[in-house]
Amino acid sequence: MNFLEMVFPNKCLLCGKNIKITELLCQSCLSELFRGPVPLREKNEFFDVYFYGRYESMLKKLILVYKNGHHWRLYKLISQLLLKTITRYQHDADFVTWVPSSFSSLESRGFDTMGLIAKSIGKSLNIKVVKILDSYAKSTKKGMSVSERLALAKESFTYIRKMYGRFILIDDVYTTGSTVKECVNLLRKSGVQKVYVYCVARA
Ligand SMILES: [Zn+2]
C-alpha cells in the first residue's frame, strides 16, 4: 500500500475490500463477474435474447451499484461483460442501439445507463451506434383514478428516426420481457429488418 492509499483508502464498490487507488473492484469480485456468459437464450417470434448471466449475487450488485449508486465509471466493465456474450454468438448487425433510461431516472442519475454502454460496445465492435428509441412520460388527465395514473406513469417508448438495417439492441435486466418486446416492435416499425437482443442479466 502506498502513502496515498493509506490516507485515502479506496474500497471495492461491491465488497468493500481495500484496493489500489486506480481500481474500481477487487480481483476476487472481478474474477467472479468474468465467469460468464451463461448458456442462456430466449427465442421469441421476431427476435432472440441472449444473456450474460442471471440477475443474482455479484452481477445483480454490479448493476444496482452502476444504476443507483451513481458509479457511471462501471460502464466499461459492464460493456466488457456484454461483449463476451455478443461475440460468442454469430450476428451480422450493422448498428448498435439501446433501451433508453426513463425521463425520471435520467433526471435522478444524470446519465443514460445503457447509452454509455452502447457507445463503448460500438467502439469495440467498430460498428455505428444510433439512438432510435426515446422514452417519454405520458401526461395524466384530471378525473383519472389512481390505477389509471399509475399505468400512465410507467415508461413508454417511441422511435425518433426511420432506420434500415440489422441492429443489436442492449438492455440491463430482462424480467418479463415486455420492455424489450415493446422496443423491438418500435424498431421494426421504424424500418429495422433484424434485431439481436443482448441483456446483461435474466431475472
Ligand atoms: Zn470486491
From TrEMBL:
It holds the Pfam family DZR_2. InterPro entries: ComF/GntX_DNA_util-trans, DZR_2, PRTase-like, PRTase_dom. Residues 4-34 form the Double zinc ribbon domain. It comes from the Bacteria. Belongs to the ComF/GntX family. This is ComFC protein, putative.
